[in-house]
Design goal:
alpha+beta, Immunoglobulin-like, 2 domains, six-stranded antiparallel sheet, 17 strands, 18% helix
């Protein structure tokens, strides 16, 4: 698929403030599943300096810093991306034990997967543990059946809502509701997978959506590490394995480190408001 994306974000402050260094993660990644064809990032006010780096998890990010006070911060990203992976299952399993539960990743890759296996008790409580165990039992211990079944279960049992602001809800809290945003569902799916010992990470980006609707929301889904397949996506909002209809921006063991923009400001009594617009056009590469 070919994607043309425009993403504008505006912050307005009630009084002039000083902006601390900000971190932007607006670069669609280039890897075996997608290629970045063009990219432009415009920041107003113009930063006094910036540095483009590769972060600890392989995401391209830009640190920017400012000298003067301002009442506005505007970020506009425009890009073109080609996604390549039509078949989300185009791999072979190089560790046969991965196919059935319980399993363990190869010893040589375990250190690099440590963060993605983190069983944070603030994220994984009794409700999450019980549902994960129930679905594992229902799958007969077949890991790939469990991956698909869990993804589908969330899609079929939660109403998807748009919640433009705020961090993802704690998975235990999402379990108590019958509706959730895409980032809430992604974090819950991560928790269910990690409880079964499957390395999982949070992904932010864009999804094709309705081709007749130009405006979009930022999207979130999950990637799991499969020996022989690498990082592969599962989207509980759509109940599908990720193929060529998603564009990934950043991925991390925690949602905060995959957010497109993070930063702080200084100003006594200052209040901030945020608005954004995402426009996306897509067409088949065929």
């Amino acid at each position: 698929m070919f994607f043309a994306i425009s993403h504008s974000t505006s912050y307005t402050f009630s009084i002039p403030v000083f902006l601390e260094p900000h971190l932007f993660r607006f670069w669609p990644r280039t890897d075996s599943s997608q290629r970045l064809l063009s990219f432009q990032l415009t920041i107003d006010p113009k930063p006094s300096g910036y540095s483009d780096i590769l972060d600890s998890e392989g995401n391209i990010v830009r640190w920017v810093w400012f000298n003067d006070t301002t009442q506005n911060l505007n970020i506009e990203m425009q890009c073109e991306v080609s996604t390549q992976r039509k078949n989300p299952y185009d791999y072979i399993i190089t560790t046969p034990s991965f196919q059935s539960y319980p399993f363990q990743y190869q010893e040589e890759i375990l250190p690099s997967l440590h963060s993605y296996l983190n069983l944070d008790k603030n994220m994984i409580g009794k409700k999450v543990e019980n549902l994960s165990d129930q679905l594992l039992k229902k799958s007969g211990g077949d890991i790939f059946a469990f991956l698909d079944m869990t993804n589908t279960f969330l899609y079929e049992n939660w109403q998807v809502i748009v919640r433009e602001k705020g961090q993802p809800l704690n998975p235990e809290e999402t379990m108590q509701q019958n509706k959730a945003s895409c980032r809430d569902m992604a974090l819950l799916l991560m928790a269910l997978y990690r409880n079964a010992g499957i390395a999982s990470r949070f992904v932010s980006g864009y999804q094709e959506g309705d081709p007749d609707t130009l405006k979009r929301q930022l999207h979130a889904w999950v990637e799991v590490y499969i020996p022989g397949g690498g990082w592969r996506g599962y989207d509980p909002t759509h109940g599908l394995a990720v193929s060529d209809r998603h564009v990934a921006l950043a991925a991390s063991w925690t949602p905060r480190e995959a957010a497109p923009c993070t930063g702080k400001f200084r100003g006594t009594g200052a209040k901030a408001s945020m608005a954004f617009t995402i426009e996306l056009r897509s067409k088949s590469n065929d």
